[in-house]
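re the bet — no i am not wrong, look at it urself. input seq straight from the record:
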Amino acid sequence: YSDEEGKLFYFKYMVEGGEEFLPVATTRPETIMGDTAVCVHPEDTRYKHLVGKKAIVPMSNGRTIPIIADEYVDMEFGTGALKITPGHDPNDYAIGKKFDLEIINIMNKDGSMNGEAGQYEGLDRFDCREKLWEDMEGDGLVIKVEPHQQRVPRSQRGGEVIEPLVSSQWFVKTEGMGAKALKAVEDGDMKIVPQRFEKIWNNWLTDIHDWCVSRQLWWGHRIPVWYVGESGESEYIVARNEGEARKQAVEKGHPEDVILRQEEDVLDTWFSSGLWPFATVGWPFTEGEEDSDLARFYPGTCLETGYDILFFWVARMAMMGLELTGKAPFDVIYLHGLVRAADGSKMSKTKGNVVDPLDTVAEYGADSLRYSLVTGVTPGQDIPLNMEKIEANRNFANKLWNCCKFVTDNALKGADEEEMKTLGVNGPIGKEEFEKLSLPERYIVSKCHSLVASVTSDIENYQLGAAGSKVYEFLWDEFADWYIEISKTRLYEGAGGGGEEEAKAARRVLVYILDTSLRLLHPYMPYVTEQLWHHIPRPSATEDQVAHALMLADWPQMDDEVPLTTSEEAVSSFESFQALTRSIRNARAEYNVEPGKRISATIVAKGSLKDEISAEVKSLVALAKLDPEQVIVVEAGSDEAKAAAAVESVQLVVQDGVEAYLPLSGLIDPVKERKRLEKQSEKIEKEIQKLAGRLQSKGFVDKAPAAVVDKAKNELAELEDQAAKIKSSLEALS
């Protein structure tokens, strides 16, 4: 439909046997020739006395039609009198059926007027409109013509105005099939995700009508109906093929050579699509065969589709599957949202905001687009397609590539051929091997195993977006930012490494974590993960694998009954180590320590945590840029801890039981720092005075927009806060 400027034609419907008339308005005067009644509201006092009388159809040589009453008519809209043309309007058709009115078709399929149009036969419908109106004007039946905004039905392909016509169409009775589909969801045979769409499902299937499946197209499945004889459509046979139709015709008494003509209409696209779950795997030819594709692949497990075709396609598949096979076609119906523009608006060519996926793939890669769409979706919610997000996910793919490059080009350089054979991942790290690992390795394996359990659960529960995002966060925030950096302290002598067993353990964990992560990420980024997986050590292919490929590899957790090994203690200890590292980094930033400068530190911890941190001093040195010669880890409450507290230092309280002391002498040059802070203080003070002066000015406060005044107040508050911090730092230096 398109909204277009048209005309509303007002004319007189003369009442038979007098001078009275009913004022009627129409946007299509040519359809007057097909009118079979004039309808008014039964309570309309203007026309109540005319109900039951006859009206004369203009320019029809005196043909009369009844004046009827029905509550369908809105007394307040238009003239309150409605012409009824059952042959050319779907709403009028319903009233015509209700009052048993004659149905007159006044048009041919090419839009020209037929014999029912009387003197206007042969004219194009729009030419008829002009000629009829001109004739009515000559007979004094015209009241007025007004501009009118109207919705015009147009052909999507050719743009022509669509004309409603009454014609013979084939219908499928849906009441029984609809009840079966309704019951399948009610009984839990089919589950709709998200569940709120069950209400829409129920609304459609409880208020279902017979389904018109006739389509006048040149392509599609021809309707399996054969008409008997050379002409006419009164006798027909419904059959699977012409042979079966001929057999039925003979059984009805027709000769063997009787002429059969197949219906030229084709089935509605949704009807053909509704056959898809079972027709594509051999139905009906392989029904009952145990080893057939139909037996193996039908019914399916999960259908993933858009919520906008829940009824048009999904309900039809359910109805036809249950009717023709006795089984629901799917266990789960997962409904995703529609892809929209970045601002949430619908993509439209007229708006110019359509994103061509091929252009996006060319610029950012298929995996980046795929990952953005899948992780950006919550079941049933629309997806705003943001190019910045796709670019960020392209960067994530690059990060993944670089992680793999580090493992293959750096970490594995020290591995001999024998070790390389053992690095392929053919199962999860077990408890015995896990307990021999150092703290960072136990932490990253624990986090990885927890990730596997969480992602597996999310995918099984169709929380696909959440699962994909968790893999992203783990790879970027845990593996790349922490473990890869710590692994360097095991692999490189210059970073504190050099021990062969320690290096082997690091290589084992690096490959294991990367391999597991690639398996988890493969459904979201199939191309880059498949490519990278072939670059890392892999186990040999099994005999039943068609190809040695990641897409055929085992999921990281094949047995849900046996949880993967984790350690809450290791996670807690390493999180303390992370908090300590962040605190030292923050202190460096706060005191503007030069990036390359290494500082001294005394770490105070207690118990087993002190031992864990002591074992990872080289990791702390690398991550927090500490001087390895001036870092000690001491027991809380010990003499060494008290001595550290006595030195002029920056004290960092990391958490209960963990503190760090950073001697000021190592952090800053007091003289230089005082000069820098005093200069900064002087600059900020001038800005404060300037801004405070503006805010004290009555002219500014009264005349400036409220938003500008509020912005100035916020800026002043920020400057005052900065000034207070600088003052505090100066006092600390005194």
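see?? The first strand starts at residue 2 and ends at 14. told u. also The radius of gyration is 40 Å. so pay up
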